[in-house]
Amino acid sequence: YSEATTLYSESLQIYTEIGDKEGRADALEGLGRVHQLRNEYTKAAALYSESLQIYTEIGDREGRADALRGLAKVYQLQNRYSEAITLYSESLQVCIDIGNQDGRADALRGLAEVHQFRNEYGEAIALYSESLQIFTGIGDKQGRADALRGLGQVHRLKNEYNESCELFSEAVEVYVEIGFGKGRADALLDLAEARRNQGRYSDSMQLYTQAAHVLDQIGDAEAATHALADAVDIRQQFEREELA
């Protein structure tokens, strides 16, 4: 992230010096995204807000919609759900107005996530389903997999484990197809947890082990260790229940 921060900062300085407002807004948004990924939410919010102001000023509606979603995501991560819903909804409307289907689906998924975190499962399912339909229609495979995974999480929270396992399994297949290791590992972990909820401990252990292998391959040793620890924990749980 430090290299990305340096590059965006350098481009921001250049765009500012030559008076390129759109370039400046793009660089600010990029910096906001980096700080968001580093969990530096206050900095990220300030950068997204500044880029949003510039996009609005120059009439760049697509840039404005992107910045709104970026700021909404930060508020979501800060548990400021009402503000996140307002911003995602505003981004959604802009995307509908300009015919940006990818942005529209992304805003719908963001709204779905917020409703999921607020335990509003009916709304979350409807929004994830709509985003899934759009991502599928425009051929955005990662967006499709992310929406499938989100739907699976809501069904798992509703104790609808068969539905959730089908959705997680489909998400895993798509992530494998596009070669996105992090998504594959996350979906495997979701599937492992759902199988654990069903009492299918052998399947769950295998899935946690698979996830650990993928995480190790992509260089996330800490997450791989956690996944293996979960597999061990399930084995111990299974042995305790066998003895009971």
Report on the structure:
There is one protein chain. Helix 3 packs antiparallel against helix 4 (61-77), helix 4 packs parallel to helix 6 (101-117) and helix 11 runs antiparallel to helix 12 (221-243). The protein is built from 12 helices and no strands. The chain has a domain at 1-99: Serine Threonine Protein Phosphatase 5, Tetratricopeptide repeat, CATH 1.25.40. The termini are far apart. Helices cover 88% and strands 0% of the residues. The chain is mostly helical and 244 residues long. The mean pLDDT is 96. It holds the Pfam family TPR_12. One of its GO terms (cellular component) is cell cortex. Keywords: Cytoplasm, Repeat.
Q: Which features would summarize this protein structure in a list?
A:
mainly alpha; 12 helices; globular; cytoplasm; Serine Threonine Protein Phosphatase 5, Tetratricopeptide repeat; G-protein alpha-subunit binding; GPSM; about 240 residues; GDP-dissociation inhibitor activity
